């Protein structure tokens, strides 16, 4: 189908037609209702006894299926499949294993890059397989326009290849400007690979993509969803945003590619985001993440060949160490992994906090364990501060955030609403003012369990950590503290929206 949104309409129509056929065959709405109830009970039994997803999501699905069976069953067939049940071929699995082996071998050959002093980074290595690497020059950008211009500058200086992945790529002025630059570089012989999420970038016109391809840019959707039969994949999205130039410079963070991320939008006066520029060995780990995504769905034994045969270009090993000897550990994970890698890494660093935890996240919908970890830290005397958007970009996400506030406040967590004329989209966390995380990962169930995400863990002493600390200080000046008194005065319709959003946010 030309418009992938049509798949939702088609499946809904098919579901409705089947319901009508059953209704006319049995000539009784009561019989149809009984059949739907039987299906909902059977599906609930499957969830309870055979499905191994987290308890928060499982309870949300049970609630939806049992209380709203017609809608709940339809949603479950559309987006409810457990990602752990997805199967990949032996060739696909072997390609990923080979890529990981190549990367491990690179770092074994350069033990001087590995930071062995930090015991926490070693714990995250055992979780993720990625080492904390020294010798990086890191710069954290708190302004979307500044980050975007630096991305353009690095792309202009590319000599061999440019790799880009965006969850959302829009064909607006920003997207068109970058596309023009990518086409220009491709026509000079630079290898340009662009990947986008097929649902996040669902509005990206086919003509726009075809024009890039005609100019020599390799364009690929991640886990294409374009037929009704493949709709069960649409809830498992690749939320990463990353760029790698010549294997030496990398960018990652919360910014997608569109006008709003540069504050060129009518909906908000200002779009607050955080991006990280990496020059040094850690850029190789971002490169590895991009290649991992690029070959992920190729059922081809030669998928890795273009990269392996030119290792010196894609994984340059000379002159990577920078004068700024900052330590960075890149962690990535997704719904098909056996473990919840990034979530576990977040829980690990939170559990090590002794003085302070600072979090800024546009979507704060934790599971029970994550919420307990935050509350336990605050009750043990650790200063915990969380900044959320004062105005949301989506209703269910905004009210999902606010539904947790009372439990946070009651434990001593300090909660703040960001400027209501702006939107807080940055995703960062600071632990004891010595460790910072920047990436695509929201502090929510979707990022923890359903999305492919990437985050950089930066270990101090570090200029980049100091920059993020300063960003948090500035963000606080644009935020208002939330109080229990204020919460007690919220209207009944807001309370209802919060409770419903808390139930359904884990599904979406």
TrEMBL record:
Membrane-spanning parts: 7-26, 32-50, 59-79
- Location(s) in or outside the cell: Cell membrane
Q: Which InterPro entries match?
A: Cardiolipin_synthase, CLS_N, PLD-like_dom, PLipase_D/transphosphatidylase
What domain of life is recorded for the organism? Bacteria
The primary site where this protein sits is: membrane
Indicate how the chain sits in the lipid bilayer. Answer: Multi-pass membrane protein
Q: Has the keyword Nucleus been applied to this entry?
A: no
Q: What Enzyme Commission number(s) appear in the record? A: 2.7.8.-
Which residue range or ranges hold the PLD phosphodiesterase domain?
234-261, 420-447
- This protein is called what? Cardiolipin synthase
Q: Per UniProt, what is the name of the gene that codes for the protein in this document?
A: cls
């Amino acid at each position: 189908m030309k418009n992938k949104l049509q798949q939702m309409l088609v499946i809904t129509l098919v579901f409705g037609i089947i319901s009508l056929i059953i209704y006319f065959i049995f000539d009784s709405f009561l019989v149809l209702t009984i059949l739907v109830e039987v299906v909902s009970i059977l599906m609930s039994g499957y969830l309870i006894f055979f499905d191994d997803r987290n308890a928060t999501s499982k309870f949300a699905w049970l609630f939806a299926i049992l209380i709203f069976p017609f809608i709940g069953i339809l949603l479950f067939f559309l987006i409810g499949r457990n990602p752990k049940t997805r199967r990949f071929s032996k060739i696909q699995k072997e390609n990923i294993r080979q890529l990981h082996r190549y990367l491990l071998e690179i770092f074994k050959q350069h033990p001087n890059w590995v930071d062995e002093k930090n015991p926490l980074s070693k714990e995250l290595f055992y979780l993720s397989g990625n080492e904390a690497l020294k010798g990086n020059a890191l710069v954290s950008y708190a302004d979307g326009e500044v980050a975007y211009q630096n991305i353009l500058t690095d792309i202009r200086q590319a000599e061999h290849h440019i790799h880009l992945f965006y969850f959302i790529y829009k064909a607006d002025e920003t997207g068109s400007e970058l596309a023009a630059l990518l086409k220009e570089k491709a026509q000079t012989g630079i290898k340009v690979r662009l990947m986008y999420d097929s649902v996040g970038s669902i509005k990206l016109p086919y003509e726009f993509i075809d024009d890039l391809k005609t100019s020599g840019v390799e364009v690929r959707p991640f886990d294409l969803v374009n037929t009704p039969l493949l709709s069960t994949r649409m809830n498992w999205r690749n939320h990463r945003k990353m760029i790698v130039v010549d294997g030496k410079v990398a960018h990652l963070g919360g910014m997608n590619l569109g006008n709003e991320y540069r504050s060129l939008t009518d909906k908000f006066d200002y779009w607050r985001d955080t991006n990280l520029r990496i020059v040094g060995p850690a850029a190789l780990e971002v490169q590895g993440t991009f290649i991992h995504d690029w070959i992920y769905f190729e059922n081809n034994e030669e998928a890795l060949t273009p990269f392996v045969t030119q290792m010196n270009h894609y994984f340059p090993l000379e002159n990577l160490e920078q004068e700024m000897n900052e330590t960075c550990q890149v962690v990535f994970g997704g719904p098909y992994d056996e473990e919840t890698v990034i979530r576990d890494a977040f829980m690990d660093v939170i559990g090590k906090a002794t003085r302070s935890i600072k979090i800024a996240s546009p979507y704060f919908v934790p599971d029970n364990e994550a919420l307990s970890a935050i509350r336990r830290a605050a009750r043990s005397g650790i200063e915990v501060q969380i900044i959320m958007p004062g105005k949301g970009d989506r209703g269910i996400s905004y009210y999902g955030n606010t539904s947790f506030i009372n439990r946070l406040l009651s434990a001593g967590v300090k909660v703040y609403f960001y400027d209501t004329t702006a939107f807080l989209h940055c995703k960062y966390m600071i632990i004891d003012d010595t460790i910072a995380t920047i990436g695509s990962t929201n502090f929510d169930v979707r990022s923890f369990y359903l999305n492919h995400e990437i985050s950089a863990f930066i270990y101090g002493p570090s200029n980049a950590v100091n920059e993020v600390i300063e960003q948090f200080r500035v963000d606080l000046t644009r935020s208002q503290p939330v109080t229990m008194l204020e919460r007690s005065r919220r209207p009944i319709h807001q309370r209802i929206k919060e409770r419903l959003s808390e139930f359904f946010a884990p599904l979406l």
